[in-house]
Amino acid sequence: MLARKSIIPEEFGVPGLASRMPRKPVFRDRVNKARFIAKNGSCNLAHKNIREQGRFLQDVFTTLVDLKWRFTLVIFTTTFVSSWLLFAMSWWLVAFAHGDLGQERDRELDLDPGRHNRTQCVTGVKSFTSAFLFSIEVQVTIGFGGRMITEHCPTAITVLIMQNIIGLIINAVMLGCIFMKTAQSNRRAETLIFSRHAVIAVRNNCLCFMIRIGDLRKSMIIGATVRLQVVRKTTTPEGEVIPIHQIDVQTETALASNSLFLLAPLIICHIIDKNSPLYDLSAMELQCSDLEVIVILEGVVETTGITTQARTSYVSDEIQWGHRFVPIVTEEEGVYSVDYSKFGNTVKVTTPRCSARELDEKPSILIQTLQKSEMSHQNSLRKRNSMRRNNSMRKNAGGSGGLRRNNSGLLSPKVQFFTPTEGGQNLNAVT
């Protein structure tokens, strides 16, 4: 038995209407992942299962510089104390072999009193403690004068030469390590600051990604350059998963010149065009994405000539759509003044919520948005002007009423003059 056809056509049924209705895009919740670069510039990366640990010992100096301060100070102290103890043992052995120690010398004098005038290798070294003190005096060139080496013992002269050479090497390495740790380039990077948030707004009729950078010191960064990278997890058409895919982002400043003149805080602008990884992202999709924008500022320190690098990153929660940085540079009495208290302040501006691709496909969206913004701005100006006009009229009305009251008080009062008449009490009032 054939099924009876419905009276309503299929295209007007519930399934047909549902298939033709435009569906809103469904966005999944963004998974909170660890950021690749922290806000202070440190890399959030842990190295595990390194089998070739000996490679670090091949570059001892760099390893010592990269160590933390507590480990460096422990190694510094241990190295010097060990060298003093080692050569103290050498001086004690020289004195013991030559018979200069206290007990050995007394025993030899008892057996052969004629050896009383024999010269010692090191005068004043009679025990291990005195040998240790003499080792410190030799290596750090203190020389108190109580202990000294003589020219009658070639072995002692050889030990003296070896200790001087080894002591100079230890001093050069350890002091150089301490100097490099105190003069590291990341210390200069502490005064290179970035805005807390990044913004996306329209500039020169283009959707742009912008950040603000600044330098707190008066000494400049020579040849400063800024690089932007987008780090995200991607999957290739072949199915390969790249957990940290780094995509270079071109900045507007890099297109114009090779370096920045970082005299005052600058706004670094990236135009979101077809080559940008942000080209297909709208305001809603940006909040659900797991991308991270890394900013790298490099340059040469003017005072030391050392290359420094400052880093930071912005995740999707730290990117404000439809905001713009407020100006912080003003001219006061012939001097340009920078107000760093407003360094990261932003203000809302009218910005389309769609992606840059949609703006390129439909330029009317941007025109309509700008027209609405202009109309709202004009309406606000009209309301403000009307409110000012009403306030001025009220003030004028209040002022005129007061003047009237004051003038009424100044009017001369009426005065009546009474004149007697014949046969009656008629009074004529004269004003």
Write a structural description:
Mean pLDDT is 77; it is low at 1-6, 22-28, 113-117 and 403-431. 39% of the residues lie in helices and 21% in strands. By secondary structure, the protein is an alpha+beta fold. The radius of gyration is 44 Å and the shape is elongated.
Overall radius of gyration: 44 Å
Order of helices and strands: HHHHHEHEHHEEEEEHEHEEEEEEEHH
- The helix content, as a percent range, equals 25-40%
Largest sheet: 5 strands, mixed
Number of strands: 15
Assembly classification: single chain
Overall shape: it is elongated
Number of H/I helices? 12
The third-level CATH topology of the domain at 188-367 is Immunoglobulin-like
Average pLDDT across residues?
77
- DSSP strand (E) fraction? 15-25%
- What is the CATH class designation of the domain at 188-367? Mainly Beta
The unreliable regions are 1-6, 22-28, 113-117, 403-431
Specify the CATH homologous superfamily of the domain at 188-367.
G protein-activated inward rectifier potassium channel 1
Give the N-terminus to C-terminus distance in angstroms: 119 Å
